[in-house]
Amino acid sequence: MLRASSYVEYIQPDMKIRASSLVYQDPATWGISRISHREPGNFTYIFDDSAGEGTCAYVIDTGIFVAHPDFEGRAEHLVNFSTDESDEDDYGHGTHVAGIIGSRTFGVAKKTQIYSVKVLDSTGRGSSSSIIAGIDFVARDAANRTCPRGTVVNISLGGRKDTAMDQAVAAAVASGVFIAVAAGNDGADARYFSPASEPSACTVGATAANDAMASWSNGGSFVDVLAPGVRITSLSIGGGTREDNGTSMATPHVTGLAAYLLSLQGGGTQGLCERIAEMGTKGVVQNLTQGTVNTLINNGALG
């Protein structure tokens, strides 16, 4: 055998290598800019040109206005578990969230494929059974969909503690997808809310442009990381843009970052929330609530 030959020092596989370069988006919104710099006050988003390519991002929300040109044809509706007859986003929340994950102008992972799973109606409300159905659907669909670099899921919704919902999230994570969830906007401890309290999910609190934790953001030890969530501009239904606030806006920064890292580094979804936390900027967030981690997400583009 070749391995046994005295002329062979070692054997390694022939690896595929690609050119990599950083892209500078200038100007960019403060939120995506902040996650590519260690200091505040920048309006340039710096990212590797892999940009989430080869990943799939599911948005469990009010639907998505998939025809928005800023999605560049990468957004698709899959299923509707809400009480609305329309599959479209008639509220705007899901479109805004999806834009932060992966739109051309406002997105963190600008090449990810985006899939809409509608569970909330035109008023932004829905039942826990509809949300659980959406989570279960994603776990099944992702297992049969071609996403060579991995699958991420965004859940920018929640309510009071719901064991069945937490269990659905845990089962989906165990199936191999990454799930980021909103901590909530009650100014309370995230442990009392679902799916924010599910340990296997990556729970996200919100910060402002001055690096202060938002006063209304839920916090506590169940929050894994913090991300921009105040005065965030993204896409709106009908083809325009709008500004919004909430841990709902912070969460897709993390979902987009997860897709970005899967595309750039690989490594799978297991432990990805911990990897994101390790890469984060430590100790810069002010006005933290008791027990909340002082970790602001960062994509590592500048080290």
Automatic annotation (TrEMBL):
<dbReference type="InterPro" id="IPR023827">
    <property type="entry name" value="Peptidase_S8_Asp-AS"/>
</dbReference>
<dbReference type="InterPro" id="IPR023828">
    <property type="entry name" value="Peptidase_S8_Ser-AS"/>
</dbReference>
<feature type="active site" description="Charge relay system">
    <location>
        <position position="61"/>
    </location>
</feature>
<dbReference type="InterPro" id="IPR000209">
    <property type="entry name" value="Peptidase_S8/S53_dom"/>
</dbReference>
<dbReference type="GO" id="GO:0005576">
    <property type="term" value="C:extracellular region"/>
</dbReference>
<keyword id="KW-0378">Hydrolase</keyword>
<dbReference type="InterPro" id="IPR036852">
    <property type="entry name" value="Peptidase_S8/S53_dom_sf"/>
</dbReference>
<dbReference type="Pfam" id="PF00082">
    <property type="entry name" value="Peptidase_S8"/>
</dbReference>
<dbReference type="InterPro" id="IPR022398">
    <property type="entry name" value="Peptidase_S8_His-AS"/>
</dbReference>
<comment type="similarity">
    <text>Belongs to the peptidase S8 family.</text>
</comment>
<feature type="active site" description="Charge relay system">
    <location>
        <position position="248"/>
    </location>
</feature>
<dbReference type="GO" id="GO:0004252">
    <property type="term" value="F:serine-type endopeptidase activity"/>
</dbReference>
<dbReference type="InterPro" id="IPR034193">
    <property type="entry name" value="PCSK9_ProteinaseK-like"/>
</dbReference>
<dbReference type="GO" id="GO:0006508">
    <property type="term" value="P:proteolysis"/>
</dbReference>
<feature type="domain" description="Peptidase S8/S53">
    <location>
        <begin position="58"/>
        <end position="267"/>
    </location>
</feature>
<dbReference type="InterPro" id="IPR050131">
    <property type="entry name" value="Peptidase_S8_subtilisin-like"/>
</dbReference>
<dbReference type="InterPro" id="IPR015500">
    <property type="entry name" value="Peptidase_S8_subtilisin-rel"/>
</dbReference>
<protein>
    <recommendedName>
        <fullName>Peptidase S8/S53 domain-containing protein</fullName>
    </recommendedName>
</protein>
<keyword id="KW-0645">Protease</keyword>
<keyword id="KW-0720">Serine protease</keyword>
<feature type="active site" description="Charge relay system">
    <location>
        <position position="93"/>
    </location>
</feature>
